[in-house]
Amino acid sequence: MAQIKKYQWLLPGLIATFIVLSLILLSLAGIFEYTNIKLIQQIIGDEYIQRIIFFTIYQSLLSALLSIIIALPLALSVRKYLQYKIIKLILSLAWLSFVLPVIIGVFAIIKLHGVSGWFSDISVLFGYSKLNYIYGMNGILLAHIFFNVPFAIRIILFSLNSVPAELWRIAIQNNFNRWNIFTQIEWPAIRYNLFVTAAIIFSLCFTSFVVVLILGGGPKYSIIEVALYYALKIEFNIDRAVSLGIIQIFIASCIVLIILSFTKSFKVEPYTKLKLHNSNIENKKLLVYDFLMLIIAILIFLLPILALVISCLTAFSYVTIFGNPSLLNSIYWTLLLGLSSGIISIVFSVMFLITIRKLIVTYRIRWLANLIELSGNLILILPPVLLGTGIFLSLRNIYNIQEIAPYIIIGINTLTVIPFTLRIIGPEYLRVSYMYDKLFYAYDIRGVIRLLKFELPLLRRSFATAFAVAVTLSMGDLGVISLFGSTEIRTLPLYIYQSLGSYRMDNASVGIFILLMLVMSIIFISEYLLGGRDD
Amino acid sequence: MKLITKTLLILYLLLIPAQSETNKLVVYTYDSFVAEWGPGPLLEEKFEEFCMCDLQFVGLSDGVEILTRVMYEGPNTNADIVLGLDSNLTHKAKMTGFFDNHSLDLQNLNISDRFEDEVFVPYDFGYFSFIYNSSKIQNPPTSFDELLNSKISIIIQDPRTSTPGLGLLLWIKKVYGDDASEIWEKLNSNILTVTPGWSEAYGLFLDGEADMVLSYTTSPAYHITYENDDTYKAAKFTDGHYEQIEVAAKLANNENDELADKFLSFLISKDAQDIIPETQWMYPVIDDVKLSNAFEQLINIEKPLRIEAKEVDINNEKWIREWEVSLSK
Question: Which pTM does this prediction carry?
């Protein structure tokens, strides 16, 4: 009995892993019978598919690389001014581009950069011709940067948070220059998370269907996910779709593993966290540089959203909100499904982390910890269209899909957001563990008490952010809901898309506006109320 | 432990499908058909007045999804009727063997000269065309030839993911035959972008991103009726216009065959057809329907074009590949 008790910390992580894997296996089981090695070989031999595969890898690697290259200097600049309210506000707003439904994000980008976007209008105002630069490779990259950099910035900031105040003090005392600070202090702190973030962004871009189709400008730029969708939905060729899916999973995992192999195991040392403003270590020239960075950030992330909001407001009418039961109904479902997935994904993340923490901090069994974490991230390399269809095929003979749809939607959305919540809570959680593990142990503070009474208050901020991201990401989902949603279960993104689909631009605008407001409220409530003040 | 068992039991009970009612007719259709501005709610009200049944629409994300869903659900599908398939898909749908013949006489429909089918019942139709804003473009192209020799920018849909996209592909195929790929290569310089669905394309067009968008000849009727705006017009092509016919059919193992037949015949009755034009923005299949003033202002199509569904089914993959290659050059 004592033996079992000694290892009970393994339980949460294993249970979480088991549930996550079984949902994924449920999906794979649905499509397993369609696996056909010969067909895979035949598809790989196809010249057109080879070109698509090459482009898929090329665009997603380039997008990930650019996102990191842009996020890094931005985050380093922003970090120094975190005590300013306006900077915090901008950071909170920047989440919008990460959590909005992709289609709305793309519209926002087009409102700013399109042929009749703001920039183009300005060009015409000065007597030049309209600007047409967004359709094609530029657009794909710009959109991927717009969607992913805010996430990368946040992860970098959370990682930098683990740098102990003493180190900054040492840096000041020794008159470190900017380069020294970066190589000696910042880089070691962010290295690990930076590569994991790069891998996550890579996976997101790998299946970025809507962006590539709308902004790519035509079949010249096509990705595997498009071919997969075509095989599954139009040709009804499950064999071919599954084969493409396997190819996609294989390539994505190889590249993700290569990216992750750069992460040398990153050591967090037990420092105490002291409050220290270190803005005085920079000189004037750097201030100008920081200011420039901030302007760039606003231009890239906030201006498209602003353009979107303004265009929505011009079509706004209160009549369409209140006299509209289906809009109210979709607000209800958006919140219900979003909050459910958000809360469940936080619970799962904590379960994962309890076991990971014990493995890393107490037992130093890195490989098992990585394996458990990997299972939480596995969802990222699965093609979304195939995942949903797989679950559908597995369950169709057991349940009436319409009736259990809400559970499926919550389930898949929870899986989808776990990689992000893990990444946001993870670094901070480990840091706190390194700092206080011995203390907790000495005072025999364990289990739920340790989590709720001691760790939660210390981790409030990252929990709040993770919660905001999880809820809002699920709220913005359009892929899962369009597969399992119906007339009764309709969320705002589906409502918006449906309105667009029947000429109702005014309804769509109102829907977009309300979704933006809801997402913003959840971000602000989480970050400012739940997250509390900086300690 | 007891608590856990209890929770699991409750969860399990929640997951058990409810007993189905007897006199129920389940119709799979696409979302916008059942939206509050779509024909669904009105049709339901009218049908339930006399059918003594419960008509249930299940709105799926789009027309393509309907057939996908039925195919993936197989013989166990909940659907008694599918409504909203495109005429290009009928052959593929028939091949599944999931559908049953209707018992209706379609001779009196106004499209009986060009659509006849023992399984599928047409309930509305329209023609693909390019829509432009007449306040911006004074001389719209009058043929594909003029279009591709002009500088006019267009937004089209992807034939791999949307029915209008496939419609354009077939339209050009019908007009140009084996020269289609050459035409696509030339058209490439006019194409601003190719969207996954009609919604994105039309949205971008209304934002002013391009001069024209692929839609239906009936699209301007919406703007005239609801926005009092008659600047949007369809460009009439001398090549003729590709026709889209939307159809419904009953599933072979539906739960209530009599009710299913009743619904299909209701669908082409005057009661139902009166509702169609201004909710679907498509033409009704019977002549007895009084069309509003907005429809009077639309262009007339004397030369409807269509490729037989069987031919579409056989060549689909080949033609798509041709399209992909031509536009990738």
Answer: 0.87
